[in-house]
Structure formats: structure tokens, C-alpha cells
Write a structure and sequence with these properties.
This protein is of the alpha/beta class and 146 residues long. It has one domain: HUPs (Rossmann fold), CATH 3.40.50.620. The protein has a five-stranded parallel β-sheet with strand order 5-2-1-6-7, sandwiched between helices. Strand 1, helix 1 and strand 2 form a beta-alpha-beta unit. It starts with a strand and ends with a strand. The structure holds adenosine-5'-triphosphate (ATP) and magnesium ion (MG). Adenosine-5'-triphosphate (ATP) binds next to helix 1, strand 2, strand 6 and helix 4.
Length: 146
Amino acid sequence: MFKTILLAYDGSEHADRALTAAAELTRALGADLHVVSTPEPDMPPVVLAPYGAIVDAPPTDAQIAEAGAKVTGQARAALRKEGVDLTDSHILRGDAIANILSIADACDADLIVMGRRGLGTLRALALGSVSQSVTHQARLPVLTVA
Ligand code: ATP
Ligand code: MG
């Protein structure tokens, strides 16, 4: 049933647990495994001196590329330990939710695997905003790993 699995990976411990589950399914089912990641580089706030306002500067292409290389390197190394080769990795800037859904379409995935939580620090809710929206919006099965 599951021939193409898409792992949404943000480099968090939760995503690492999702990676382990995705690797096990990939091996057991002889499936293809894709990874999608929207890098979230730590951005120092920029002080706009004339206004005294503080805003988050959008990451530059170089920062996105650097963060993307780091996060996919981490995923590839962890998958190698699990004995699984990636079919492809997709690093995209912008909105993580839209990117996960559009890559699921583009690679014709039949299962998305992701963590229940991610890099965020708010622990009050069971699901993070990305796992919640993807679960609600996806037209394919989503496995959220605790
Ligand atoms: P929030 O971001 O709402 O503060 P959170 O970080 O705890 O909460 P989510 O962002 O929903 O939780 O993360 C849940 C899962 O979604 C992660 O384990 C990962 O699988 C996936 N995910 C989250 N952000 C990204 C991202 N930027 N790129 C790829 N996958 C992501
Ligand atoms: Mg998050």
C-alpha cells in the first residue's frame, strides 16, 4: 500500500523518532523514501535604529542553504545507520506546511511521516502547528510519531 513515503524533517528529536519509524517502514515495505525540510535558521533580530523597532530579518539564501545542508546531512547520516538510502531530499524555503503538502503531491507520496512536535518550545498542546495543519489538510495518510 505504501510505496512512496515522505518524511518531514526539521532536525528535532521528535523528527528523529519519525525518521526511525519512516526507515523501518521503508525497509519493511521496500518503499522509496523522500525527505522534505524547510530550514529554520536561528535568526538574530535586526534593530531598525531610526524607528527603534525590532523585527525578525528573513533568512538569506546562503543561510537557508547552510541550514538545509546541515539538516539533510543529519537525516542522511541517521538513515545510513538504519540501513536506508534516501531516494531524494527536498529543501525549500517558505512555509513548512505548504512545502510538505506540495512535495507530497510532487513525489506522489502515499504516506507522510512526521513528529507530533518539533523544534518549538511551547509544549502545552499535543500537536505542533505544522503537524496539526498537515494532518488536517493532507489528502493522504499521515503518521505522527510521539
Ligand atoms: P510549533 O512550530 O508550532 O511551535 P513544534 O515545533 O513543536 O510547534 P511542529 O512544528 O508542528 O511542532 O513539528 C512537528 C513535526 O513537523 C516535526 O517533528 C517535523 O516532522 C515536521 N516539521 C515541522 N517543521 C518543519 C520544517 N520546517 N520542515 C520540515 N518538517 C517540519
Ligand atoms: Mg515547529
